[in-house]
Amino acid sequence: MNIHIAEQLTKAQMKELKKLYRNAFPASEKKPFWLIRKKKRQGFSEILGLVNEENRLVGEIITIIWRDLLLVDYFAIAEDVRGQGCGARALELMKERYRGKRLLLEIETPDLPCDNSRERVRRKRFYQSCGMESMEYHVGLFGVEMEIMTFQCQVSFEEYHEIFVGVYGKRFAGNITRI
Q1: Alpha-carbon distance 71 to 141, whole Å?
Q2: Where are the beta strands (DSSP E) in the chain?
Q3: Any residues with CB less than 8 A from the CB of 74 and at least 6 apart, and which?
Q4: Who contacts 161 (Cβ-Cβ below 8 Å, separation ≥6)?
Q5: Percent of the chain having pLDDT more than 90?
Q6: Helices and strands (DSSP H and E) totals, the chain
Q7: 3-state secondary structure (DSSP) of residue 179
Q8: Which pTM was predicted?
Q9: Largest CA distance in the chain
Q10: What is the pLDDT of residues 15-48, one digit of tens each?
């Protein structure tokens, strides 16, 4: 499937993006959307759509940019187009767009007992198949254990934590621990 990253979204596309955001992530992992928009206005974040050749929003990328680090904070592909190469293509587009940045993301730790263990394992395998590697540490992110994955680079816990201190402040970052 042919897709591209869109910075400017129509009202209808932004509505679809918010709907995808609401449905794709557990409540315990979502920031309020007003906070994401605020960080975008402050220049720390980008809210990007993945749009196909029919101009339909088929995915979203919400990033946090801090120094030479790019945290892919939220990344989702519309359910009806999963398995068609959109996710892998989107990661390639991200690598091109953010050339020179160290790209990282968080995934729910796949080897913990949970209701969606198959989905977690499948997600990790997908990222590994796209060239991502797990860091040697996990984090507690507001009480949720997450694994950090990067594209062929190292990001220490201290660097990861500094993203949140720099963008959200020490109080917010106090909810993020090394496991």
Answers
A1: 14
A2: 3-6, 45-52, 57-66, 69-77, 102-108, 132-141, 144-151, 176-178
A3: 21, 24, 25, 60, 61, 62
A4: 173, 176, 178
A5: 88
A6: 6, 8
A7: coil
A8: 0.95
A9: 44
A10: 999 999 999 998 989 999 999 999 999 999 999 9
